[in-house]
Amino acid sequence: MSSTAAGTLVSGLQAFGVDRVFCVPGESYLPVLDALLDTAIDVVTCRHEGSAAFMALADAELTKRAGVCLVSRAPGAANALIGVQAAHENATPLVLLVGDVSHQVADREAFQYFDASLMFGNVSKAVWQLSNPASVGELISRAFRLAESGTPGPVVLTLPQDILASTHPCQPPLRRITVAPPEPSQAQMSTVHSALRQAERPLLIAGSLLDRPQARVLTRFVAEHHHLPVLPANKHPHLMPSAHPYLGGRLHHAVPAAQRALYEQADLILAVGTRLGWVVTDAYTFPAAPGVQQRLVHVYPDASRIAARYQPDPGLAVDPVAFLAKLAELPAVQAPHSPWHKALRDLEADTATWRSATAPDGVLTGAVADAVNDLTGGDLTAVIDSGAFTGWLLRYLRFTERGRLLGLTSSSMGFAVGAGIAAELRAPSAMPTIVFAGDGGFLMNGSELATAAARNARVIFIVLNDNSYGSIRRRQELAFPGRPVATDLSNPDFVRLGQAFGLLGLSADRPVDVRPALKKALQHQGPALIEIRTSRSQPVPSP
Questions:
Q1: What contacts 24+ positions apart, CB below 8 Å, involve 211-214?
Q2: Residue 363 and residue 492: Cα distance in Å, rounded?
Q3: In angstroms, rounded to a whole number, what is the distance separating the alpha carbons of residues 156 and 48?
Q4: Contact, 142 vs 82, CB < 8 A?
Q5: What span, in angstroms and rounded, lies between the C-alpha atoms of 229 and 270?
Q6: How far is CA 108 from CA 119, 163, 188, 310, 541, in A?
Q7: Alpha carbon distance 348, 252 (integer Å)
Q8: What is the pLDDT of residue 92?
Q9: Burial class of residue 329 (count of CB atoms within 10 Å of its CB; 0-12, 13-18, 19+)
Q10: H helices within 37-135, ranges in order?
Q11: Which of 129, 164, 396, 453 has a CA positioned 20 to 30 A from the CA of residue 389?
Q12: Alpha-helix residue ranges (DSSP H) falling in 307-438
């Protein structure tokens, strides 16, 4: 009995629980596509490789398994690079499969040949080439284990087209092998418990590795049990419900100065499931590196991230979810609702409350967030792109225990359109999926509206249109007042554009138009687009 390398590869995908892949088809990996046809794996055809990679990344964020993207040769790989870089910075597991030229003509300037190691080497955990059809199972197994272990991230496999079509003896079936990170010891937990006992103003920073149902429940329980205010990490405000009394604030690009001052009064910081990266720590200033102002307990499964820039006491390279489970079993030692905790909670509640305001040149994004809160109650999947508008959404959008936000640490423009489709495909109609994109970012991958229409994905695309690259324009005005260049945009009629793709197209030019348009889109049994004319003069929420 024999099998093609492509068939074994697809069998490996099935063994690792892959039920959906995202691709732009290419002749270099036609045997893989043919093998996929005989499986239950859902093949999502995308309109651009960059968007396909973003969609696989978003799917991985939702499943907590490596997302899979397939592209072809140098042009497809180059287009997918933005998604690989985003997965690297976001610490999201991703396996990129690249159909490549035949191995006999590599390094001979063959049509669309490229050196994958040079292209992806600095933004991936590994770049490997399939050189022997008999080793395809081993290579797939290694790729998934590496992508999902330690600090998650992308792995790139190049697949020469002649090897994909070659036959080899059938291999034993693959199976997923889980290598769990260690659990904290009793001695380590005693040290943490002692630190809690000594602290007067402890804080818990909840990182991205706590973004799974069990961990979210544990985070709330630990906060209530130990009277710990919680700060969700950047782009993860949903890790604590917005109305929860132990939500102490949110860490993002635009934390108000008054909140930051209260955070700095903490005398103990439990950083759990976070790498303590650039944005979460505000360029390593909170906690202040190397960590002498507050005692820091850092819990992360990748030992290389512990003490990389800080001096934790202690640093625990253990499973963060297991750490929370053990912490939940320890006796409570903190007094409930201290004056400092009350000040944190009151300020967060005040900061996150939208107060009606208007602008002469369009709708304020805060009013859009307020309308979304009113009509969804915080039960939604919010997918945000990059731009000045995100500061408003990160401050004012509300989330329940079910709600969630999808966004990128790298703030790559063009992410949200495809990511919203991937989110809806993963949990169709479980709750509304609403995409927020500026006019600039939306058009970077707006062709994926065709994918939304083809799948009848019930996604609401909100285009916040101020006819500019708004974030860059604001910085330009600060650096070079009165000298704008390259930041004004001439846009299409987004409503008609959406309709041309088969979507319900709506518009809102005034604040009073926002709720009726959103209500109609929420009732629609298919994809919808709302163009909202937003104010170019609206300030970014001040830090």
A1: 211/61, 211/64, 211/236, 211/238, 211/239, 211/404, 212/64, 212/321, 214/321
A2: 19
A3: 18
A4: no
A5: 10
A6: 18, 18, 57, 48, 54
A7: 13
A8: 98
A9: exposed
A10: 49-63, 73-90, 116-120
A11: 453
A12: 320-329, 339-351, 365-376, 390-396, 416-426
Nearest to 252 by CA among 111, 137, 396, 349: 396
Tokens of 455: 């799948």
Residue 291, pLDDT score: 65
Could you tell me the two tokens for 287?
């906690």
Domain housing 381: 354-533
Q: How many CB atoms lie within 10 A of CB 334?
A: 18
Residue 314 and residue 189: Cα distance in Å, rounded? 10
Closest C-alpha among 181, 162, 139, 155 to residue 66: 155
**Assigned domain for 181 exists:** no
Strand partners, 472: none
The pLDDT value given to residue 110: 66
* 456, amino acid identity: N
Distance of alpha carbon 249 from alpha carbon 263, whole angstroms: 9
CA distance 258 to 447: 42
Average pLDDT of the segment spanning 362-377:
97
Quick count: other Cβ atoms within 10 Å of Cβ 267? 15
- The amino acid at 295: R
Give burial (CB, 10 Å; 0-12/13-18/19+) of 307.
middle
Same domain, 112 and 161: yes
- β-pair type (459-465, 433-438): parallel
Cα–Cα distance measured from residue 541 to residue 358, given in angstroms and rounded to the nearest whole number: 14
224: pLDDT strictly greater than 50: yes
Residues in the chain: 543
Amino acid at 145: R
Backbone angle region of 206, left / alpha / beta, with phi > 0 → left and psi within -120 to 50 → alpha: beta
pLDDT tens sequence across 242-262: 999 999 999 988 889 999 999
Question: Rounded mean pLDDT of the chain?
Answer: 93
Please count the CA atoms within 13 angstroms of the CA of 291 that sit on its side-chain side: 20
Centroid of chain to Cα 250 = 16
Distance of CA 233 to the CA centre of its chain: 12
CATH number at residue 525: 3.40.50.970
**Residue that terminates a domain, selected from 168, 197, 225:** 168
Domain count, the chain: 3
Q: In this structure, what token pair is assigned to residue 61?
A: 């964020």
Please give the helix or strand (H or E) that residue 450 lies within, else none. Answer: helix 449-455
Q: Is pLDDT above 60 for 543?
A: no
Q: What is the pLDDT of residue 1?
A: 36
Is pLDDT at 105 greater than 70 in this prediction?
Answer: no
Same domain, 414 and 479: yes
CATH for 193: 3.40.50.1220
Type of residue numbered 305 = R
Exposure string over 216-228, b if 16+ CB within 10 A, otherwise e: bebbbebbebbbb
Single-letter amino acid, residue 192: V
Q: Please give the pLDDT value at position 288.
A: 85
